[in-house]
């Protein structure tokens, strides 16, 4: 009876939130001044998950506290062992994970790939050997990852199979010829007795070889995880465009390093591309995830773009030969009580190609669990977002692939770029149900000035249309209200689908400075008052036997802008991505994965945007990305 009454209260609260939020949003617009909306539900729900747990011990069988355990696979996570040496990863997407352990004063454990399956708790025993101190030779002790069956066996007495894997990859690695770095000490010892080498030659050779040997040894003790992407990308309107006009796919290199520690994670990322458009992006961040009232993240990024092509429109836009963008941000989640959490933060971005170079985007929100023991969450959020035209080329996305600046852009008329400013207010509620269903509802209000328009394949008055180059303009100001409902549930083993429907009523207040030019070249982006229906569906699937991950998104909207016409018309956007693990490519405990993606979604941050950001992108090209990902 108690459970039934709690469920009724949850349903009643959901209804009350929806019924009162419309008036509440109007009041909030008057009480609050104006980050980005933190939507409670995502269009990409979670896939089938499993758990991974284990115990970290020393070579005497005693539990170790404070060891940093990381798992790299479909996602990257870390944990810190407790007083009993235990750690746990819960809710991991199923698939293979590369598990590593580090603790100061102990030799790093051998990495091991562990398969996480749905509905099972995969157990691992991890033994760390104590690092020798002093001038003597370090003892050779076992350090590895075993199965739950050996969790209580100390390394000093465990049989040899606990320290070495018996799969084909492990066997081949044990029988490979030792590398130069591993044999360096033996080589140096033998050279001292070789009469053909003088003392000077031995000393020179010793310095030449010992320096990288020591460096490699020092790096082995650092708790570093990494990822390398070697990708190519190209844009097309029709499939045959990929093979015509001599177009060559653009190469992209991406490197990421993360150092998990007991209190948080340091991350560094960088990506670059070459060609007639040379660009690179570098970013660093620190995320604090240790138990405590505050969990925060702070970081920065810097992107630059140089154009060496012959497009006159692009050359005129990039007047100084390059564009540079820097971003600083910080966000904190403060758990006031087990049922109340506050989120607040801000982002500062500087664009050297804008007249108003510095843009500030603050945000704040509160999440409340109304009933103790219930899975109902209610959230109120406020944000003010300032965005520069072309920002998607320079600012790293919060979701999706990390790509460097790939395209050039220029103002459609007047030679001026106007930043877009948005105030967003939102009230939302969501609840998890026992059947694995997640239901969310929300109401929102937006006020936007200088709504951005993005035009592909549209010639300006000064230059013809060019592939790889687009124009930006301001459509004016609008006020919008709307509501939405989302549903996410597991359809079958390893398959989860999400659906989101949003209804928006928008009223345009003022025409933008580019309205006259837009009326001649792209009239469909100019609006008055309209009602917009948007439906987004996504499916994420993991095929366990082949370690294949598939993600597909399909978006239907009644107000997508067309290249011609006087109003919006129904249109679609899609995003398909396939990740295929390559188990036969396992080298040095690295996980290899092949990636293929095709998309015509221009702005991937669908949550952190105005309702018109994607709709006023005219004729976006399809983009294909392919390559190899290596995690280590």
Walkthrough of the structure:
The chain is mainly β and 632 residues long. It folds into two domains: 2-46 and 280-583 and 595-620, Porin (Beta Barrel); 49-220, Immunoglobulin-like. The chain contains six helices and 30 strands. It has helices at 2-31, 168-175, 180-191, 199-220, 312-317, 515-521; strands at 49-58, 68-72, 76-80, 86-93, 95-102, 112-116, 121-128, 144-147, 225-236, 250-260, 264-273, 277-288, 294-307, 322-337, 340-351, 358-368, 376-387, 408-411, 420-432, 438-449, 452-456, 469-474, 476-492, 495-511, 529-543, 548-560, 569-581, 591-599, 617-618, 622-631. The strands form four sheets. It has an 18-stranded antiparallel β-barrel. A hairpin with a 6-residue loop joins β15 and β16 (358-368). The radius of gyration is 28 Å and the shape is globular.
**What percentage of the residues does DSSP assign to strands (E)?**
over 45%
- Structural class call reads mainly beta
Span between N and C termini?
51 Å
What's the CATH class label of the largest domain? Answer: Mainly Beta
- Number of individual domains: 2
Shape: globular
Q: In angstroms, what is the radius of gyration? A: 28 Å
- Determine the CATH topology of the largest domain: Porin
The overall pLDDT, averaged over residues, is 74
Total number of β-strand segments? 30
Share of residues in helices: 10-25%
Sheet of most strands: 18 strands, antiparallel, barrel
Q: In CATH terms, what is the architecture of the largest domain?
A: Beta Barrel
Low-confidence stretches: 1-46, 135-202, 204-220
Count of alpha/pi helices: 6
């Amino acid at each position: 009876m108690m459970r039934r009454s709690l469920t009724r209260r949850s349903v009643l609260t959901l209804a009350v939130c929806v019924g009162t939020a419309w008036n509440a949003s109007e009041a909030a617009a008057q009480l609050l001044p104006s980050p980005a909306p933190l939507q409670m539900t995502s269009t990409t729900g979670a896939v089938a998950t499993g758990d991974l747990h284990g115990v970290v011990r020393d070579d005497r069988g005693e539990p170790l506290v404070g060891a940093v355990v990381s798992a790299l696979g479909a996602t990257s996570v870390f944990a810190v062992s407790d007083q009993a040496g235990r750690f746990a990863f819960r809710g991991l997407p199923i698939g293979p994970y590369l598990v590593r352990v580090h603790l100061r004063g102990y030799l790093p454990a051998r990495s091991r790939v562990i398969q996480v399956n749905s509905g099972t708790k995969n157990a691992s025993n991890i033994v760390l050997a104590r690092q020798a101190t002093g001038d003597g030779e370090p003892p050779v002790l076992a350090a590895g990852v075993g199965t739950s069956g050996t969790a209580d066996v100390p390394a000093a007495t465990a049989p040899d199979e606990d320290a070495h894997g018996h799969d084909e990859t492990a066997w081949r690695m044990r029988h490979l010829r030792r590398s130069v770095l591993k044999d360096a000490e033996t080589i140096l010892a033998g050279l001292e007795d070789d009469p053909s080498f003088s003392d000077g030659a031995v000393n020179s050779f010793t310095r030449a070889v010992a320096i990288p040997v020591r460096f490699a040894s020092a790096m082995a003790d650092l708790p570093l995880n990494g990822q390398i992407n070697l990708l190519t990308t190209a844009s097309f309107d029709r499939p045959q465009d990929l093979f015509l006009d001599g177009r060559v796919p653009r190469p992209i290199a991406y490197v990421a390093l993360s150092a998990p520690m007991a209190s948080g994670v340091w991350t560094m990322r960088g990506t670059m591309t070459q060609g007639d458009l040379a660009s690179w992006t570098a970013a660093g961040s620190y995320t604090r995830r240790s138990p405590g009232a505050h969990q925060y993240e702070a970081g920065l990024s810097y992107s630059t773009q140089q154009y060496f092509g012959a497009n006159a429109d692009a050359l005129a836009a990039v007047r100084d030969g390059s564009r540079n963008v820097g971003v600083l941000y910080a966000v904190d989640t403060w758990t006031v009580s087990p049922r109340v959490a506050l989120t607040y933060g801000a982002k500062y971005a500087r664009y050297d190609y804008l007249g108003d170079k510095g843009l500030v985007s603050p945000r704040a929100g509160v999440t409340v669990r109304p009933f103790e023991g219930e899975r109902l969450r209610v959230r109120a959020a406020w944000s003010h977002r300032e965005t520069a035209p072309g920002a998607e080329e320079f600012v790293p996305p919060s979701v999706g692939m990390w790509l460097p600046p790939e395209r050039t852009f220029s103002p459609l008329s007047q030679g001026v770029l106007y930043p877009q400013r948005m105030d967003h207010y939102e009230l939302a509620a969501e609840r998890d149900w026992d059947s694995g269903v997640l239901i969310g509802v929300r109401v929102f209000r937006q006020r936007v000035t200088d709504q951005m328009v993005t035009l592909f394949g549209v010639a300006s008055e000064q230059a013809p249309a060019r592939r790889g180059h687009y124009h930006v303009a301001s459509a004016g100001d609008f006020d919008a209200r709307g509501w939405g409902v989302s549903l996410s549930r597991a359809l079958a083993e390893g398959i989860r689908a999400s659906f989101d429907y949003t209804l928006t009523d928008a009223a345009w207040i003022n025409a933008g400075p580019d309205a006259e030019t837009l009326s001649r070249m792209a009239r469909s982006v100019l609006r008055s008052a309209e009602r917009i229906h948007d439906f987004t569906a996504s499916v994420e699937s993991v095929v366990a036997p082949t370690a294949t991950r598939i993600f597909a998104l399909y978006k239907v909207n009644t107000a997508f802008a067309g290249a011609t016409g006087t109003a919006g018309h129904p249109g679609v956007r899609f995003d398909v991505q396939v990740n295929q693990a390559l188990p036969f490519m396992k080298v040095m405990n690295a996980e290899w994965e092949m990636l293929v993606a095709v998309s015509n979604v221009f702005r991937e941050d669908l949550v952190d945007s105005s309702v018109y950001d994607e709709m006023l992108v005219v004729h976006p090209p399809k983009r294909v990305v392919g390559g190899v990902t290596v995690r280590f």
